[in-house]
Amino acid sequence: MQSRLLLTFHLVFAAFILLVSSTVFAAPKADLWSYWQSSNEANSMPINHQLWQQTLNRHIVQQGDQTLFSYNQVDQEGKWQLDRYVREMSKINPLKYRKAEQFAYWVNLYNALTVQLIVDNYPIKSITKIGGLFSFGPWDDDVVTVNGKKLTLNDIEHRILRPIWQDNRIHYAVNCASLGCPNLQVHAFTASNSDHLLDLAAKQFINSKKGVISTNNKTQLSSIYDWYQADFGNTAQLQRHLNQYRTTPVTLKNIDYDYDWALNEAK
After folding, report:
1. Where exactly are the structural domains of the chain?
2. Do the strands 142-146 and 149-152 form a parallel or antiparallel pair, or are they unpaired?
3. How many whole angstroms from its chain centre is CA 139?
């Protein structure tokens, strides 16, 4: 009887974990945190992202249409450099800068924090394994404090970037350390290169198999287009968006969605 009860418990627990894993990652809606809306457009001073660029230079590895990250090669000096970059960014008041500087600031900070989470928990097979027992990844964990405000990755993406800039290319810029995610760009974002990098990231992703696979009978799309349908619009609008960047135009039909949560690790 005891063994049967134990088996039943394990089965129920496994079913619960499966349910949690499949439902917790429901894409958050864009929900403006109005505190972060203001800017100083008269300030032409740039924010220095050189430390983040140095981390990218050392650890980004290009393999086919993937940019992978050599987490296993990050030594103590590399960890210190990454920590220093995050600390320096946390001391900045982004509201004192113009919007273009703020955009680059938030994208770089998001990506650096994601890499830092992986490095601090390495070795790990997926970012979804970080967090508490009943959490699906670290996106709702406090990871940085800016202007005295504790921020999560979800705050940065869904309460700052998406609602303030309202640009669906943001989904190609923030990286979740997974093979299914749009590439972590080899260049740090800046006020002057952000628009170019957004277009480049969109083109890379939409022309890759992790973005779009089209056959005669069906289309497999990244789950990003399912999770964030509100940002990409209906099927006709999404098709126009994709074909803006596709080298070969696609006709969307019999759509399936897929996403690979395996770590984007260069081994």
Report:
1. 28-258
2. antiparallel
3. 10
